[in-house]
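Input sequence (220 aa), recorded before submission:
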Amino acid sequence: MFTGIIEAIGSIRALTPKGGDMRVYVATGKLDLHDVKLGDSIAVNGVCLTAVELPGDGFWADVSCETLACTAFVDLKTGSKVNLEKALTPTSRLGGHLVSGHIDGVGEIVAMSENARAWQFTIRAPRELAKYIAHKGSITVDGTSLTVNSVSGAEFELTIVPHTLAETIMVDYHPGKLVNLEVDLLARYLERLLLGEKAADPHSSGMSESFLAEHGYMKN
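Predicted structure, token format:
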């Protein structure tokens, strides 16, 4: 588990095809690795990766075909900057929100504008994730825990303060850039709970307007 509070900016040092998937070397910059052991988890742009080698100034990790297919990792190149966060320990402050490191989908930066010293970002999420994104709710963008300021359909807006810009890769964002999204865990669990016994039905279509109306969650 992670908090979504970025600890350092690293960079991709190498991307090596290996047996049909990929092995990646991440140079970790100022991230303190003294307490990291082989097998520990580190979030890279919000993706939970396992350290399989620790050469000193970074770590090697294996990236599966599933991860390559479901994240914006496919756009990473040698030299790309990445957000880094080590996994939670029992004494960590939960400064952001609970983040699993399992990406739900890939979003796209569609607009940017200055707002005093901050920046406004508009991000378009995949349509199937829109129901999990709420005004003033939490969302993780490339591993960064952020608060949603407004929602319109599948698009949502963020206000990014100078500190966050300086300490994450968001300073390099531009319209058209793809980003990893993880929705709030609570939203996913709530959806599952509301399904009740239908959650065990493999033919259930999940949460829908007809389901909500049938169970009294919507008024005609």
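Checked by second reader. Residues 197 and 204 are 10 Å apart (CA to CA).
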